[in-house]
Every structure is written in structure tokens, then in C-alpha cells.
Amino acid sequence: MNNKHEPFIIHRYKSIGYAFKGMLLLLKTESSIQVQFFLAIILTLAGFFFEISSLEWIIQIFTIILVMSVEALNTGLEKICDFVHEDFEERIGFIKDIAAGAVAISSLGALIIILILYTPKLIHIL
Ligand SMILES: Nc1ncnc2c1ncn2[C@@H]1O[C@H](COP(=O)(O)OP(=O)(O)OP(=O)(O)O)[C@@H](O)[C@H]1O
């Protein structure tokens, strides 16, 4: 529970704690995040294997962050939807669909970026 009267530093410290708890909850409970985390590990290993440049690392890390952040926000939105309206409701379906659309946009973008990064390297070793 947040206490708005506690010192700023304590308040910030607790907020960071909640945020880390949120990351662990996502990893423990959400299969989509687990799959993305697994793919992030594969990409990290690929980065070391192909000795990608600093700029390529930055692009790859940003790509992973983007997809996983959008997925996390989508998960939160789904939970709110289920909390406010458990039964079938067209407007809830619409909200969930457009939130899933955001995940699709970031995932397709990520796929294109990863293909641009690794296709030449894969062709080179084949
Ligand atoms: N309460 C509802 N009313 C109307 N349509 C819904 C409702 N709940 C889900 N839907 C429809 O089903 C789709 C999938 O919803 P769901 O909450 O199962 O998301 P998901 O991405 O499959 O979830 P998960 O995180 O389990 O993978 C939504 O995009 C929406 O079209």
C-alpha cells in the first residue's frame, strides 16, 4: 500500500520494489512473456556468437525491450478488462483486440529488425 506522506526516497525505493515484483510476476505467470524471455536469451547468445557491433547490440536490446514492454502493458490491460467485465461484452473485446494489435505491431517490427540484423550473418556462414 502506498503512503503519500512517507519520505520521497522511501516512496521511490518501494515503487522500484513493486516494479521488480511486477517483472517477476510477469515471468512467473505469463506464458507470452516466458516465450519472449526465452527468445531474448537466444538472441543474446546469437549476438555473442556473431560478435555483433555495439550499435547492433543497442538495436537488439531496444527491440527486446519494446516487445516485452508492450506485451506487459497488454497483459495489464487484459487483467483490467477481466476485472471490470468478466462476461462477454463487445467493447471489452474491442479493447483487448486493439491492445493485442499493439503487440502484433511491435512483434512484426521486431521480426523485421532481427531478420535485417542476422540474415546477412547467416548467409555469410552458410
Ligand atoms: N469479455 C470479453 N468480451 C468480448 N470478447 C472477449 C472478451 N474476452 C476476450 N475476448 C476476445 O477474445 C480475445 C482473446 O482474449 P484473451 O483475454 O483470451 O486474450 P489472449 O491474448 O488470448 O490472452 P492470454 O494472455 O491468455 O494469451 C480478445 O482479443 C477478444 O477478441
Automatic annotation (TrEMBL):
Extract the Gene3D superfamilies matched here: 1.10.287.3610
An example Pfam family from this entry, by short name, is DAGK_prokar
Q: Name one GO biological process term.
A: phospholipid biosynthetic process
Known cofactor(s) = Mg(2+)
Q: Where in the cell is it found?
A: Cell membrane
Q: What are the alphabetically sorted keywords of the record? A: ATP-binding, Cell membrane, Kinase, Lipid biosynthesis, Lipid metabolism, Magnesium, Membrane, Metal-binding, Nucleotide-binding, Phospholipid biosynthesis, Phospholipid metabolism, Transferase, Transmembrane, Transmembrane helix
| Example GO molecular function | kinase activity
Q: Which GO terms describe its cellular component?
A: plasma membrane
Q: Catalytic residues per the record?
A: E71 (proton acceptor)
Amino acids binding substrate: E71
Binding annotation for a divalent metal cation:
E30, E78
Cofactor: record remark: Mn(2+), Zn(2+), Cd(2+) and Co(2+) support activity to lesser extents.
Transmembrane regions listed in the UniProt entry: 33-52, 98-118
Q: Which residues bind ATP?
A: Y18, E30, E78, K96, D97
Q: How does it sit in the membrane?
A: Multi-pass membrane protein
**UniProt similarity note:** Belongs to the bacterial diacylglycerol kinase family.
Query: By what name is this protein known?
Result: Diacylglycerol kinase family protein
